[in-house]
Each structure stands twice: as C-alpha cells, then as structure tokens.
What does this fold into?
Amino acid sequence: MNGLGSFGLHGKNVVVTGANTGIGQGIACSVSRAGGNVIGVGRSDMSETAGLIATEGGRFTELRADLGDAKTAMEVIDKIWRETGPINGLVNNAGIIRRADAVDFTLEDWDDVMDVNLRSVFFMSQALAKHIFAEGRSGKIVNIASMLSFQGGIRVASYTASKSGLAGITRLLACEWAARGINVNAIAPGYIVSNNTEALRSDQARNEAILARIPAGRWGEPRDIGDPAVFLLSSASDYMHGATIPVDGGWLAR
Ligand code: NAP
It folds into this structure.
C-alpha cells in the first residue's frame, strides 16, 4: 500500500455513498487499496463490501441512511464528522434510474430520481463544505455522473436531467470552492455491469447494439471506475476543478 506517492490516500477518511454494490463497491475497494478509511453510506446491508475490504486488510465502517431525503443526507455528514473525525473525501455515487417513455413519465419517477441523484448530492456536499470551511481544512468531492451528462438517452427523462444537472453542479461548486480548498470533479462512467444496467444487458438487441458501439469491446466493471476515483480523491489531482471525466471504454470518442 505504500509507495503510491501523491496517488495514495493513507490516513484519509473517504465517504462513499451506495457502497454496498456495483460502482460504489468498486470505488470503496479501490479507496481502501490506496490506504483510505472507507465510510460507506447507504440504505442496504454493506457486509459484502466490508468482507472484501477486510480480506485485503483495509478499514470499512458503515452508516445506514436513505439518501432519498436530503435532510438525512446532510445529517449523515454531521454525524460522521462528529464521530469519525474530519472527512477528507466524499464520493457521491448513490443513484437510481426509472425507465418510461417521456410522454408517460410520472411525477413520482421524476421526483424520486432527482431527489437521490441531484438534491441529496448537492446538500450533502454543502454539509461537508460547511465543516471543511469552519475548520480551515481541505477536501475532495467526486460525483458519479453518466454518459447522460453529455447525451440525451431515451426513456430515462429524470435520469438524464439529474446527471446533466450533476455535471453543471460539479462546475458551479468548483467555481465557488476551488479557491477555498475543495476540489469538485466528476466521473462519467460508460456502460458498467451493475444492477443499474441489468435491464439493458438482458435486452439482447440493446445489449448487442451497446457492445458494438464501445471501442473497448466490453462492458466496464465497477473496478474500472474505482482507481480513477482514487486519482480524483488524491493530491495527484490538486489542480483539477469542475471536470467531468468520461471513463467509458471510448464510448464518447466514437
Ligand atoms: P446500483 O448497483 O444500482 O447501485 C446504486 C447504489 O445507490 C446502490 O448502493 C443503492 O443502494 C444506492 N442507492 C439508491 N438509492 C438510494 C437511497 N435512497 N439511499 C441510499 N442509497 C441509495 O448501480 P450502479 O451502476 O453501481 O450505480 C452507481 C452510480 O453510478 C449511480 O449514480 C449511477 O447512476 C451511476 N452510473 C452507472 C452506470 C452504469 O453503467 N452502471 C453508468 C453511469 C453512471 P441499494 O442497493 O440499497 O438500492
């Protein structure tokens, strides 16, 4: 674990939302391998992630919270800061998707997605910034965006709105906080194997069309996102602010 230089996270407390599965689990494992202490935040049992990290000798603690409620999300940050100590990094990974034609899209599917993917992300980041500024510290925020931060997509109106909004909020927060010690950046994963993409992968026609368009010729794995997240959490990226970086097997280059 030593010898990572400015890419290491030794002694850093990193909060990862949605760390029980998928991309969040991949990020939690990478952060731990880079020496960071991971605090997983989510609504489900995180013992699988805890087990993976324990096997490699890392440190993982979990805090249960429903991030559909922004007030809860803010309180989570306060609680961790109070009980675990200063937070050095926050990965806003938790997210949901709902699929329906735009013409049929419901208010509920709009609000539920916007609440988790954008509203709670903003207010959780705000809660963290308040602590960091109050104590004159520094920190790193990494938002998990999407190809739909750049593209329109189909049948995912609220998801596209939330992820496009997330890229905008990443830029806004970077503009306000870059000179105050907080780096805010985002990763836009391409098509990654997780619960989120199960519907796409089990639709044979969509699956083939997606694979044919990915220059790397394969779906991404959660671990493909983990190490780029470590980079954005580490001091190696100290001069990066407001970027949304595609990690997509070349999808956007096509
Ligand atoms: P996933 O396996 O469905 O994971 C989503 C995570 O968010 C889970 O841990 C989930 O917890 C958590 N979550 C959802 N609603 C929550 C809530 N109200 N409170 C607390 N936690 C909540 O999907 P994933 O692909 O790993 O997604 C992770 C992030 O990557 C999301 O922001 C997603 O939009 C983004 N992304 C994914 C892809 C992809 O191809 N997979 C591409 C681009 C971006 P539960 O397990 O309890 O539901």
About this structure: The CA atoms of residues 10 and 35 lie 4 Å apart. The mean pLDDT is 97. DSSP finds eight helices and seven strands in the chain. The longest strand covers residues 182-189.
